[in-house]
Amino acid sequence: MAGGGSWKLPEPRRAGPPFFTRSQVASVLHQVGVLLELQGANPFRIRSYANGSRMLGSLTADLGELVASGELIEVKGIGKGLAGGISQAVEQGVWPEDWVALHEGTPAGLIEMLGIPNLGPKRIKQLHEELGLDDVEALQGAAESGEIAPLDGFGEKSQSKILSGIELLKRFNARRRLDIGMRYGQAFEEKIAALEGVEKATLAGSTRRRLETIGDLDIVVAVEAENHDDVAQAILGLSGIADVKGAGDSKISLILDTSLFDEGFTLGHIDANVLEAIGGEAYEQLESSGTIDAQVRLVSPRAFPYTLAYFTGSKEHNIRLRQRAIERGLRLNEFGLIPEAEAGDLKGQEAAKFSLPAKDEAEIYAHLDLAWVPPALREDMGEVEAAEIGGTGLPNLVCMNSIHGALHNHTVLSDGQATLEQMAEAAIRLGWDWLGISDHSQSLRIANGAIAEDLLAQGRKISTYNAQWAEQGINFRLFHGVESDILEGGKLDYSDEVLGQLDHVIASVHAITKWSNRDEMTNTEELIKCLEHPATTILGHPTGRILQGRDGFPVDMHAVLRAMAELRADGQVKFVELNASPYRLDLDWRLCKYAKELAIPVSINPDAHSVGGLADIHYGVEVARKGWLSSEDVVNYMRAEQLGEVLN
Ligand code: DGT
Ligand code: CA
Ligand code: ZN
After folding, report:
1. Which listed ligand is nearest to 178 at the C-alpha?
2. pLDDT confidence of residue 36
3. Who's near 227: CB < 8 A, 6+ residues apart?
């Protein structure tokens, strides 16, 4: 596992050969190669391990069979020595001594340093020898005090690259984005659910609550006592486990890596400007060698709903529930809901024998005189009060079926990859009624912003298509807009005459550095100024944040939203965007709830730069739910005709 503090050799988890899988052996060979390089070993030897790892990685034949038949040595790129070591591991479950020695003899701090993007073993060795650096902290200190730059082959540039790499690594080790957490979590949940003896496996924790970033995965597994040990063993044998941190009776702590994904891990589409903000190539490297921690809890089917509710959290929500239980003479924990009068001095599982029954979470909430609360809302942000019998009632949350279109999407006219026609076809395939096109505006040279003439030509094309669809009785229409950069003084990027010909104008900040270095008051005023322009319809990615990449610029978003609400009250169309890219999720869900209270419609936007990018809408919907939004609160719920009238 890259990024962590140690590289352990996997332990055999089966009773007989093959003791290790092809991907396990491939990753060990890779590690041995890197460790040899850290030691400054003979380059040929280093290369033989690297090559061997690559060969195994692309091998289609069964490794166990190749070893058993003695054919391994015939595989191109795997020499005698390597074949011997691999065979021993696969057949006997014992790694060669020199590999073990390498793993055990390398200081953990040096391995930790390998997780820094763009810092290879050779340079780590040099830093270790010349400056005595042996962990990330020491390296950071040395870089900050300028000791790295003068070294042979380094310089100012690589010194600052090391610093930004360390920052990136630290952000990564702390939390991962929601999309990444969901991908790992759902893949692992599926694998566990498919095991024999597992009644149910459900992802809990922050991933189930759809928080924008995830600390670790929590998975709750229902299993009968007689299957407990077999299931625990089977879980430990699943692919994707880079390391086992602990395996107790009811809790298994694991580190997962990308070998979890049977079809391999790909990053998918990522816009160039976002990629740059989040670390460029270094980010891609971190992501593909990334890991995530997972806590798996095995419980009896009877306790399952209680354990699931407890480990879904949030902690704050749990505290509120526990308080309600206490008021009713009940004790609430991960094992059950237990009448104090009956439990007495008994603790934990013993006391849980007296638990009120609950076949699902809804029954737990009902015991506490509450309606079931959707996991996304469990943040103690008013959901407990709303769920009370006689409370205001929980919102009927927006879902993918509520989505009939989205307003913010790009084409090849600016920096998109798909044509207008391709984007429209893709939206029709999704079953949408309409699609908004909003390419970048002329000042944004870096994103190939459109000059007025080209923008208006695009509009004429759109009118033609709309007329054709109407004629053919096809229920689909394009809205023609633009994503206007917000210029100095809060100005838009085209003349009023041009803006007046558009269906919608998304105003977005792109000069992030400038806005980030400016005070909150100036930024807030400029945003409001820009929103006051009658042509402005939508505030695009309101704070410019890139999750794990950069914070948003300073701005009083509450004040901006209030200003938008006033403008709306004066009859002006103003929407706020919830940018659905998992790298953004901006407007923050905490503010979505505020926008809803102010009756500002939220426009969930994939900000698609390709056909595939439209699928990001799904993350936007997840986060809109977290922000309490109902179908009626989002622009995407409107039918083409209604939206057309509003935009007019
Ligand atoms: P994360 O992993 O930082 O993204 O956030 P969570 O919410 O997944 O938190 P985590 O993994 O520490 O714990 C999972 C859930 O377990 C948490 O949401 C609520 C519950 N929990 C953990 N510790 C406590 C606690 O001390 N008190 C209560 N009431 N609940 C807890
Ligand atoms: Ca967690
Ligand atoms: Zn955009």
Report:
1. 1
2. 95
3. 196, 197, 198
CB 10 within 8 A of CB 24: yes
Q: Which helix (H) or strand (E) is 92 found in, with range?
A: helix 80-92
Strand partners of residue 293: 255
Ligand 2 centroid–CA 93 distance in Å is 33
Secondary structure in 3-state letters for 118-142: CCCHHHHHHHHHHHCCCCHHHHHHH
> What backbone torsions phi and psi does residue 506 show, to the nearest 5 degrees?
-95, 120
Residue range(s) occupied by CATH 3.20.20.140 in the chain:
400-445+477-647
Q: Which ligand is nearest to the CA of 544?
A: 3
**Strand extents, DSSP E, 397-476:** 434-440
The CATH class of the 309-388 domain is: alpha beta
Report the candidate in 340, 303, 99 with the shortest Cα–Cα distance to residue 221.
303
Sign of the C-alpha dihedral, residues 630, 635, 639, 641?
Answer: positive
Given the candidates 3.40.47.10, 3.40.50.1820, 3.40.630.30, 3.20.20.140, the CATH classification of the domain at 400-445+477-647 is 3.20.20.140
Chain-centroid distance, C-alpha 578: 16
- Closest ligand 1 atom to the C-alpha of 319? 29
Q: Name residue 255's beta-bridge partners.
A: 243, 293
pLDDT number for residue 254: 95
Residue 305 is predicted with a pLDDT of 98
In this structure, which amino acid lies at residue 621? V
- CATH of the domain spanning 176-299, picked from 3.30.160.390, 3.30.460.10, 3.40.190.10, 3.40.630.30: 3.30.460.10
Does residue 122 have its Cβ closer than 6 Å to ligand 1? Answer: no
Q: In this predicted structure, what is the pLDDT of residue 6?
A: 59
Token pair for 144: 């900050």
**pLDDT, position 3:** 40
Q: What is the mean pLDDT of each run of 10 residues along the chain (648 residues)?
A: 58 83 85 93 94 86 90 89 95 95 91 86 95 95 96 94 88 88 97 98 98 97 97 93 90 93 84 84 81 96 98 98 98 97 91 96 98 98 94 94 98 96 97 97 90 97 98 96 96 96 97 93 96 97 93 95 96 97 97 97 97 96 98 98 96
CATH number of the domain at 22-174, please?
Answer: 1.10.150.20
Nearest CA to ligand 1 atom 21: 315
Pocket test for ligand 1, best of 177, 208, 218, 299 (most atoms within 8 A of CB): 218
User: What 3-state class would DSSP assign to 277?
Assistant: helix
Per-residue model confidence (pLDDT) at position 12: 83
Instruction: State residue 127's pLDDT score.
Output: 96
